[in-house]
Structures are given as C-alpha cells and as structure tokens.
Amino acid sequence: MRVMFDEVRGNRFRSWLLCSFFIVLIGVLGAVIGLVYGNIFFGLIVALIFGFLYSLIGFYSGDSMILSMSGARPVTKQEFPYLYHTVEGLAIAAGIPTPKAYVIDDSALNAFATGRDPKHAAITVTTGLLKTMNRQELEGVVAHEMSHIRNYDIRFMMLTAVLIGIVTLLSDFLLRSFLWGGMGRSRRDSKSGGSLTIILIAAGLLLAILSPLIGQLIKLAISRKREFMADANGAILTRYPAGLASALEKIKRDPDPLVDKANKATAHLFISTPFRDSKGFVAKLFATHPPIDERIGRLREM
Fold first, then answer.
1. Within a 13 Å sphere around the CA of 176, how many CA atoms are in the beta-carbon half?
2. Could you tell me which residues come within 8 angstroms of residue 296 by beta carbon, excluding any fewer than 6 positions away?
3. Where does 99-154 show beta strands of DSSP type E?
4. 270-287, pLDDT tens digit by residue?
C-alpha cells in the first residue's frame, strides 16, 4: 500500500516537473517565433497563452475526445453484466470511485483507461476481448486499467499527450514561418542585432525540428515504465497474477491486433499496442509498450 501511495505522489510530482519542462520549451519556441517576426516578447506571450488554453481544453475534455475518437459506447448492465460488475467490484477493492465502463465494437483484444482523475475516469474494452477472455483474465485486464486510474497514470499520460501536441503545433508553425520567408526578414533585421540573432534563429530551427521527437521519446519511455507498474499493481489487486499473464498471452496470439479506430495519439493508452508489431531498432525505440513476453515473465514470477 505504501508503494502505491508513493507512486501517486511521484506521479503528481512528475506531472508538475513535466509541465515545467514543456512550459519552458513552449516559451522558447514562442520566443523564437517572435524573434522571426520581429518581437520576441509578443511571440513568447502568445505561445504561453495558446499553450495554457490548449492544455485547459485538453485536461477537461481530453477523455471525452479520446472515447469519441475510439468509437467507444457506454456499457449497460443488461448487455455486459459481468464487465459491469467486475469494474464495480474492483473499484471497491481499489478504494476509488467506480469508473464509467465503455466497449469498442472491434475484434481485436485490447483495453485502455482514460480520464483526468479517479472521479472522472473510464475503462474501455473491446468486444473481441470480452468474447475471448475468461473471468480471471478479464479481471486481470480490468485490474491493470484500474491501477492506471488509481495511480493517476491517466492524468499524467493525457497531460503528456496534450503538451506534446502543443509543442508539435508550435514547431510546425515555426518551420512554416521559415519556409514562408520569415528567415529572410530575420536576416535583414539581424544586421543591426549582430550574429547573436542569427545564432538564436539557427538554434530555434534546430529546436523546432528536434522538440517533437524529444517529446515523443519522453512520452513513450514513460508509458513503457508505467505498463510494468500497472501489471504489478493489477496483479496485487486481484491477488492472481496468472490471470493477467494468461490474458496477455492471448493478446500476444491475437491474429488481428489492429484496433480500427486507434491512432498514434491514443496508442500509448492501450494495454497492448493497438497496431501490428514492427521489428528493428527504430521500431523498438518508438514502441509504446515494453515487450509483452517480458511482462508475462514478470507476472509469472510473482
């Protein structure tokens, strides 16, 4: 229990740390955009205001947008009674409010959790998973997602996705500004400012190219670590690690793992990658999940 509370506190601290990092990054991008157009402070202020408003919308509406994009529909007790009661029972065991339950009509075996906190959370599973898993396996999957909710992973990962989205938009705008002739204006203006302005613009261009990539790698690294933690906490919650291990083995053998309405923005939320696995170093670098065999092995050893 102490480990769980430490993880919650750690997630809250890392959330603030992540916000601080991205606020600085957004501010730098805004300042460079302002420099390109002749007013560094104007660019900085506009970027920060845009980032704040975008984050606010994403924080309070991100879960609804994700559910809508995924084609999820609410679970009813009449249609899916065991899923309904499993979510309810495990929420009581976890000591959190009962999340809303949703299903996606898809043959792939997958599930995810989303929301900004345990009071505003949802667990979504595919109909393919419901048809394939036995009771212990389904409980393991739901417990895994419940652990993401209890540990505030859902807030952290949603916030990460929103902030990376802001950085990507600003970076794209900065690159387009250079292509549209902003660089030429800045060079003319820099005659009075010296070589420092040119250096700053060059650094800004490099940052515009690299910042989305850096942000994406940070998000993926965080996501992989959290999957191991959620596996362990989910196993503790059900007191039956073999249930989740067996579920992951079935997910691994899924002949059609592609979730039709999944996309790169939501892939890290799922219990297993919603796309077909790719091979090679680059694919592993950008993987949203740790190797499923390693996850199964850790659960089998518990």
1. 6
2. 245, 248, 249, 252
3. 100-104, 111-117, 120-126
4. 898 887 666 655 556 566
Residues 6+ apart with CB under 8 A from 299: 231, 235, 241, 242, 244, 245, 248
Strand pairing partners for 126?
104
- Token pair recorded at residue 66: 């994700």
Contact between 27 and 48 under an 8 Å Cβ cutoff? The reply is: yes
**Any idea which architecture 69-154+227-301 has in CATH?**
2-Layer Sandwich (3.30)
The pLDDT tens digits of the residues spanning 57-97 come to 887 888 888 899 889 999 999 999 999 999 999 999 999 99
Q: What's this model's pTM, rounded to 2 decimal places?
A: 0.78
Q: Which residues contact 96 (CB under 8 A, 6 or more apart)?
A: 118, 121, 146, 149, 150
> Could you give the angle at which helices 81-94 and 195-238 cross, rounded to 10 degrees?
100
Interaxial angle between packed helices 135-150 and 153-177, expressed in degrees from 0 to 180 and rounded to the nearest 10: 60
Say what angle helices 195-238 and 2-36 make with each other, to 10 degrees. Answer: 160
The pairing of strands 111-117 and 120-126 is antiparallel
Of residues 250, 294, 300, 269, the one with CA closest to residue 129: 250
Q: For residue 233, is it left (φ>0), alpha (ψ between -120 and 50) or beta?
A: alpha
- The catalytically annotated residue of 145, 227, 294, 301 is 145
Catalytic residue list contains 145: yes
| All structural domains of the chain with their residue ranges | 2-67+166-220, 69-154+227-301
Question: Does 147 have pLDDT greater than 60?
Answer: yes
Tell me the range of 93-97, 216-220, 264-268 where mean pLDDT is highest: 93-97
